[in-house]
Write a structure and sequence with these properties.
The complex is a heterotrimer. By secondary structure, chain A is an alpha/beta fold. Chain A contains six helices and 15 strands. Chain A folds into two domains: about 90 residues, Beta Barrel (Elongation Factor Tu (Ef-tu), domain 3); about 120 residues, Rossmann fold. Helices cover about 20% and strands about 30% of the residues of chain A. In chain A, the strands form three sheets. A seven-stranded mixed beta sheet of chain A has the order 10-9-8-7-11-12-15, with helices on both faces. Chain A has a six-stranded antiparallel beta sheet with strand order 4-3-6-1-2-5, covered by helices on one side. The relative contact order of chain A is 0.14. By secondary structure, chain B is α/β, with parallel strands linked by helices. Chain B folds into three domains: about 120 residues, no CATH class; about 40 residues, no CATH class; about 140 residues, no CATH class. Chain C has two domains: about 200 residues, no CATH class; about 120 residues, no CATH class. Helices cover about 30% and strands about 20% of the residues of chain C. Chain C contains eleven helices and twelve strands. In chain C, a hairpin with a 2-residue loop joins strand 8 and strand 9. The mean pLDDT of chain C is about 90. Classes of the chains: A alpha/beta, B alpha/beta, C alpha+beta. Chains B and C meet through strand 2, helix 8 and helix 10 of B and helix 8, strand 11, strand 12 and helix 11 of C.
Chain lengths: ~280, ~325, ~350
Amino acid sequence: MLVDQVRIRDMLIPVLGVVTDIRADTPDVKTFRVNAPGGGVCFAHMPGQCAMLSIPSVGEAMFSITSSPTNTGYMEFSIKKCGCLTDWLHQMDVGQQIAIRGPYGNAFPVETALRGKDLLFIAGGIGLAPLRSVINYVRHNRENYGKVDIVYGARTADDLVDLEEIKTEWDRPGDVNVHLTIDREQQGWDGNVGFVPNFVKSLAFAPDRTALVCGPPIMIKFVLAALTEMGFEKTQVYTTLELRMKCGIGKCGRCNIGSKYVCKDGPVFRCDELDDLPDEY
Amino acid sequence: MQRISELIRTRAGELLESGAADQILGWENGGLAYDPTPAFFTADNVAGLVYNSFCGINLSKYLIEKTKGKESGKVAALLKPCDTYSFNQLLCEHRIDRDKVYVVGVGCSGMLDVEKLKARGFKGIKGIDEKDGRLTVHTLYGDKSCPKREVLMERCISCKGGGHVACDEVVGEELTPDAAGNRFAGVEKLESLSPDDRFDFWRGELSRCIRCNACRNACPACSCNKCVFDNSRSGMAAKANSDDFEQNMFHIIRAFHVAGRCTDCGECSRVCPQGIPLHLLNRKLIKDVNELYGDYQAGAAPDSRSPLISYTQGDAEPDVIYERGGAR
Amino acid sequence: MQKLPVSRLPELFARIDGMKSLYLPVSAGGRLQFGRWTTGTAYDPSRMNTVKSAKDFFFPQSEDLVFFRSKGKELSITEAKDPAEPFVLFGVRACDAKGLEALDRVFLSDPVDTFYAARRENGVVVTMACAEPEETCFCGAFGVDAAEPGGDVAAWLAQDTLYWQSRTDKGDALTAALEDILEDADQRDQGAFAAHKAAIKAILDDLPLNGLSLEGFGGDALEALFGSDKWPALSQACIGCGTCTFVCPTCQCYDIQDFDTGRGVKRFRCWDSCMYSDFTLMAHGNPRTSQVERFRQRFMHKLVYFPANNEGMYGCVGCGRCVAKCPAFMNIVKVIRTLGVNAHAR
């Protein structure tokens, strides 16, 4: 099922990728489809892992791979426009070749701790991107997992990423339950209105689930508080962190939180592990 | 030195007690005989304040951060005469809030350069005593001795003299080092070389540069919020010299950026781990400014204007470079 | 063990340089650094403290990784050439040799850094016992014995004799290649050799920074130290220049940058410093915005995080370069003394 990893000399040396599709998701998020020049994916990965994309002399940065590894046809990245490199990527045309290297980081424990569990995905804004990889992996291997609920919110309906896919493919009440929310009333939106943490509380999930949370730091903080209130233990909650990264392999010393490197020991952390780390992220 | 040190400590205590200052900026002992560290003191720890012949560090730059915020506390800063020039220059550039600083001038008869001691083979230094212009250095390999004037810092050999140019009080007497050198001797020597020899000299020195940024960070004239070498959009931001050109350009650019504002405090050369005589670059530009625009000492007064930012009718014309520049 | 009369050192150097490029401490501008040996380069055993450590040879300040060329939408990627020059480092201090072990832990752990690995493979480290340690030395605190240095070959220079002891396979190979010039040491030499080591140990015991205690540090000390209220006072003199990180034998933080040469883009890696304000700067924020936090990070890394990840091995070897070179005279000794459980004052 998984494509053989392309043999590369050193994990710092990139390979060629070509952008075969660009889809505008929201006013500032685009999803880029990357293929190896001969087709297929540039390398294999597990859900939650990331890759370094770069445009020579513009910059290089770490992005989470939003497509599931069960998709062997291409790799996707949902990228928000917020700096030098991402600005350039947003102006790029289909057919552009880029430099790509990876995969980096640990993955969500989809084959171990998460198997057989009832899952609760909680995402905010662009934070859906890393979780989408897990969600599609779970959907592809549906029988290995229990109940699946996805709570996803953004500031406005226009900021919801992958909305098309969510509506047409994910939303299967009874099988995969999707709960969307936006921060404030908006014309044309008849779904829930309210911040994600409050929405989660109102949905009153039983605390026997495993939760996977990703979004802006402030959202994560309040979601964790809400989950704790609902009776969730920190050992049942996973999240993914993000710091500035350069090497991706835990050697350049930049992305550490205490003795852990986000690029190597993370970006996926269980919330009880975070308690052991200094408050420096 | 012992006596003046005690005087300063006592005075510091008085200033704190009377509320004239909330903190004292001075030095505290390090772990060795020659490494006093800049430190801020309050009544709790003012007993640890020291002042000795190794207090070469220019404390004025620490006042930028200290007086930046909204807190109204006052810092009493111990400044040697050369430090006060940097202090004035920083006032000119509105980098320090004068109202938050109480300048305590401390007399200086010259600071010692530990590298000069090491160059004499004095290693394993455990302690240093000073008496009547002579140093006795106690080392792991026996006691050594030398005249103090022979191991003074380069900047002290050509001390500007004239005491403090900014202070609210002076503790002890004004002193002057026992040395009277020509400030531009080193520059004149280089000017007398052929261009090729001069280039070789600088390549020999600058090829050792490791871009550690000690010179820039220690320099009171370098206080830009976003240094051009830290700005990825400047085209010159690099953390390592990729080639000879960059090794040279960092220093030449920096010398030009501080030209007219450099007070010749000598910190750049003191802090360079590779012992590159950076002060020669800056002194060359000072000499040029003196020749082209009339003698000028940056930081002599808190409102002095550098000739490079003030136009007068007698200024040298741009075509003067054809007489001076290039091969000479 | 082998030996060689000091008078034959130039011959030894010439022989080694004939096989692999030889580098040893040479004087430059009044400071010491590792430089290429040439005929006539004298070796002064009393001067061993190079400004920069030996890490340069394995982890250079600047190193090309890859080259890019773009034409329209197409991109080509060419790997940088292998740094294949075999070399020998002579006169490496025991602390620097230990520093290489710390770097090995980082670069040779999975996934292996092939650039570092290739240089490490190509380099033979000949250490020298420090006959005259300096007042800034405190290698003993970190388990380094200056009288018994590591490396591939350990050497001692006692009066007129160079003693030579291979420590690894690589050292064996070099020794074998020099067997016609090196003599075997015998019983009579043992006496002089032992006396030399004893003399070194006596000096080590007398160092001003001797007896520095590491109690209170280590992989488990995170909670105790991270929140200490002593960090602000400790860091107030720090000017954030990064000199300490550049002269340190174990610091290995690096940056990866692109340089447009005009005929293609060169991607290289270069030393970086956690002391710099933009080290952790991201598009949306910076977890360490003050010098206090950056200062704390450096020392927590060396004294807590590194041991936590490397079975207790500290990220410091006591070489004393930070003590000698910090413009504001801050250093790890002061941090250890201020935060340690048993502050040792002398």
